[in-house]
Description:
By secondary structure, this protein is of the alpha/beta class. The protein has a single domain, classed as D-Maltodextrin-Binding Protein, domain 2 (3-Layer(aba) Sandwich). It is about 55% helix and about 15% strand. It has 5 helices and 3 strands, in the order H-H-E-H-E-H-E-H. It has helices at about 1-10, 25-30, 45-60, 75-85, 100-110, and strands at about 35-40, 65-70, 95. The chain has a 3-stranded parallel β-sheet with strand order 2-1-3. The N and C termini lie far apart (about 35 Å). The model has no long low-confidence stretch (mean pLDDT about 85).
Amino acid sequence: MRHCGWLLGLLSLFSLATHASDWQEIKNEAKGQTVWFNAWGGDTAINRYLDWVSGEMKTHYAINLKIVRLADAADAVKRIQTEAAAGRKTGGSVDLLWVNGENFRTLKEA
Length: 110
């Protein structure tokens, strides 16, 4: 059940979903999309979990969840800040980012 909730949460983050009127429409719009999920790659158990989630997204929703394993999540935070400073508010290189409290605060203040 925990995994199902996470998958539903992931789908709700798509900007496409804000325009969809129902779940079937959300699934139809998300089908075939690629989502770049940046996460710290230093934990074997988390890496296995993210690989599993990626497979589930592909199997159940035809979504290509690409896991970008980072040595330091701050690298993705810097990339987001650089893109935002350059005026790129949509279509950036990071779709989803798994952050800790410090990186969340940094992004919130940006």
